[in-house]
Amino acid sequence: MLQGALAGLAAGGVYAVLGVCLTLMSRLVRVVNFAQAAAGMFGTYIAVWLVSNQGVPIWLATVVAVGCGAAISAAIGWVVSTWLSEADTSARSAVTVAVLLLLISLSFILFGNKPQPFRPILGGPAFQVSGVVISQVAVFTVTIAAVVAAASHALLTRTAVGIKLRALSERPTTAELIGIPAKLFGIAVWAATGAVGTLVIAIVAPSQSNDAIALSMLVVPAAAAALLGAFRRLDLAVVGGLALGVLQGAAAQMTELSVARHFLPFLFIVGLLVWFQRKEVWDAAR
Amino acid sequence: MNALELRDVTVSRGAGPVIRDVSLDVRPGAITALVGPNGAGKTSLLEAVSGVVPVSGGSISVDGTPITRLSRVARSRLGLVHIEQGRAVFPSLTVVENVRLSARSSAELDDALALFPELDERRDSPAELLSGGEQQMVVLARAFAARPAFLLIDEMSLGLAPVVFTRLLPMVQRFADQGVGILLVEQFTHLALGLAREALVVASGRVTYHGDAQALRDSPDTLHAAYLGG
Q1: Which terminus of chain B has a smaller tally of CB atoms within 10 A, N or C?
Q2: What is the value of pTM for the model shown?
């Protein structure tokens, strides 16, 4: 079971990174980005096509994939910033559902509906702990989750750009009135989270389910991770993602629970929503 | 010409116009008071000038440059600063962070914070933990740090005790003394008219008085008639 739990770290790291991206998007540009993983999937598919059909080196294709993921996200950000700048979070988030479906459909049209022949960028074991193998992918995803969360926190609290981003997230109109360009900053956040999301998906796709829908639906466990931090706290998003990955990995090792592991993100989300509701009732009663 | 100029400005919201054909000039160093009953359209007019809402007719210019089609950010770069109704602080940002957003240098930041010694002890407190008066000081300090050419002030007194407001009011005159042109919307009509050189009364979206502020202050009958629609 320990082996399974630690094997789940790779997936947990992906959930954590995407959870951090969702948290940043929610905090800074008031969107729950349901297309977060789909943009990464599409960029990664382009990389696979470049490697398989054009003979492009894997590292260069990965760079192109990250650029494409960033560009797709930036394009969505441009649309949302231009036409939905005054809309509420629900309306802005609804747009990303449409983009999620568009990207999945487009991937079927352009690349077919079979899993893609991913070539791993990272592979094999990184090290062993008490006979339990930790993969390079797990080390990478967990590390990048921690680094992205810490770097984002430092950016938001210690830099002029971060302070402007926080100002924009709290009072967008007031921020614009003092000269902070909301559209430019918003698109930059979309692009940055798109790039990071694509990078982890490109790294982890060869070792995970690699069809378009499975990769795009990574947004569900990522949302569960972000929910632990109420889409506000980056550290709890990392903890939530890793915990979910470890639980899924452990469940996969137990015959009676192996099917149930697919429901864990759902149970995680329901459990957290019930818990938050309980807190509201407690506060109201007090 | 150095002025903030409005010509026949009409602003529509929802069903129809809330401001019709308003023309006025705000000159550097002058305070223009904009008063009138609640719902007259004063806030909408300020929001149209700063770009929060679009104008549906007429034109606005700053020092001869048309700004009617410019973004809020572009207008702020021309020196137009809008102090919104309520206390427009960024709640989770500290006092220093709030003011630094407008300052271009450490010197500007220090100058702005020095306006209110009360804020010195609260420099690193989140703005949401400050009293209403202190939050309004932060907003004024942030406006000062921006080095505005024209300042739009919307109901600075809203929700503040009169004693706190009278502590803040001299700052408006200080801005003007430094050459800033000010368009002042204020519920305390007599205080606003006491500061201003020129006044407009707006009722039901139309200007019902436009002239000398002191004369209006000294003539309650004229003021009441203007409030009732002229």
Answers
A1: N
A2: 0.86
